[in-house]
Amino acid sequence: MLLSRPNILRSLGRTVAPCRSLHNTAWLWCFRSAVSLDKIYPESDLDLTKPQQIPKTKGHNFSGYVPMDKVQVTYSRSSGPGGQNVNKINTKVDLRFHLASAEWLSPELKEKLATKHKTSITSDGFLVIRSDKTRSQQLNLAEAMDKLRHLIYTAAFVPPPPAVEDIERARRRLPSL
Amino acid sequence: MASQGTEKALALLRRLPRVSLGNLKPNPGAVKSARRGRGIYGGKTHGAGSKGSGQRQNFMRLGFETGNTPFYLRFPYQNYYKGHHMRLSYAPLCMGKLQRMIDTSRLRTDVPVDITQLSATQLFSINPMEKMGGIMLKDEGIDHFQATLNLEVQWATEAVITSVERNGGTITVAYYDPISLQAALNPMAFFKRGVAIPRRMLPPQNLIDYYSDPKNRGYLADPTEVARERFVLAQKYGYELPDIRSSPNQEMLLERKDPRQIFYGLQPGWVVNLEDKVILKPTDPELLEHYAS
């Protein structure tokens, strides 16, 4: 049972000290023991709703961040066995976005994706990823996100230039013309 | 009116002198004399019985069963029993069932949902004495879960955390030691006992890492790190993390218990009197220090 807020104030009012505000609204009088969070983490601001810095993508360095409002996700029924469940539940996930107009990717990455993964791009220019691996829509979407990130990272990968020793070894191996 | 026996007892209390060490004695047969038997009734065998190892003071070792394999040697050591006394089990609750409980108004969502609220639905049998730790959430029905809750359970996996957070709720995993769990499962029965609310103990060694990890949303983890993990999980599972700050029930969603607290709004050390509807609080500084430690 939870007492309403005025009752809490009356009953806890004088006995305990106010706690550091655990969130940005008006602070509550609450009980603090020797192992409360503000004692375990004295330097932290203990804010569960702290807004996070969105990492930036620059050049070939993909940050890993995919803005979900810029990609379109649609659900449909999966294939394969499964009886009534597979016939009725929309577990298949289709994740797509227009590659050329995606601002969250750098131009270099977009170029690389267009060349390396052109089989995943439709004639309209949409990069499409599908997943119906699991029985759950939520997990299939996670798999689709993972696939998308994998596509981008493999496209972004620039192999390092060959070492001097490797060039020398290749030169010796090949017959001189 | 009280029974005759009670009336007699109360009359005795009224007229007899105050109980003190000077007017107490043990019940007959409670204290056995350490001396050997003497005289006509304590003589002959002097309390040692007849013949055998007992009389000859050559006692059999503890557990010896006169030759057959004793009980304590009959069962071999098995690796699967190692540490079994420390292993906890949890009552499973799948997300589909949780959604059904909310839809059928069996569970309220306007207050933080913890083990007390879930136990009040009377749909679970959790016995702390049988090494049960509480409730764990299972993955089944994560796609059908739509409620916004402040949830506190004893074990939760990543998929479950996702399904709660994507709907704008918060989830925490918290440890309850057996005594605190017994109190939390049935608060009314606990208050009727008239004992002070105990401090909730911290998790044992094998569980402290789990409850301190922000990835598991542990109650001992740093909330700032939990905020980061919420963001990372939203990116992993492909949803926009709902902003709790702009939610109407922000306060309810962010309400948390102190690690030593069992009930929301009640502190360790308080005695809840249901009859007279009062709460008795300790005033002695030593007690206050103990209950806040």
How would you summarize this macromolecular structure in one to three sentences?
The complex is a heterodimer of chains A (177) and B (293). With 177 residues, chain A is an alpha+beta fold.
Question: Would you mind describing this structure in some detail?
Answer:
The complex is a heterodimer of chains A (177) and B (293). Chain A has 177 residues and is of the alpha+beta class. Chain A contains six helices and three strands. Chain A has a three-stranded antiparallel sheet with strand order 1-2-3, with helices on one face. Chain A is extended, with a radius of gyration of 27 Å. The relative contact order of chain A is 0.11. Residues 1-28 of chain A have low confidence and may be disordered. The mean pLDDT of chain B is 95. Chain B contains 13 helices and six strands. In chain B, strand 5 and strand 6 form a beta hairpin. Chain B is extended. The longest helix of chain B is centred in the last third of the chain and has 15 residues, at 223-237. Chain B has 293 residues and is of the alpha/beta class. Chain B has a domain at 89-265.
Strand content of chain A: 5-15%
Total number of beta strands of chain A: 3
Strand arrangement across the biggest beta sheet of chain B? 1-2
What is the string of SSEs of chain B from the N terminus onward? HHHHEHHEEHEHHHHHEEH
Shape of chain B: extended
SSE sequence of chain A, one letter per element: HHEHEHEHH
Largest sheet of chain A: 3 strands, antiparallel
Task: State the helix count of chain A.
Answer: 6
Gap between N and C termini of chain A: 89 Å
Q: Biggest β-sheet of chain B: count, sense, barrel?
A: 2 strands, parallel
Counting DSSP H or I runs of 4 or more residues, the number of helices of chain B is: 13
Query: What's the multimeric state?
Result: heterodimer
Shape of chain A: extended
* Head-to-tail CA distance between termini of chain B: 45 Å
Point out poorly predicted stretches of chain B. Answer: none
The pair of chains with the biggest contact is: A-B, 50 and 48 residues
Class by SSE composition of chain B: alpha/beta
Radius of gyration of chain B over all CA atoms, rounded: 28 Å
Beta-strand residue fraction of chain B: 5-15%
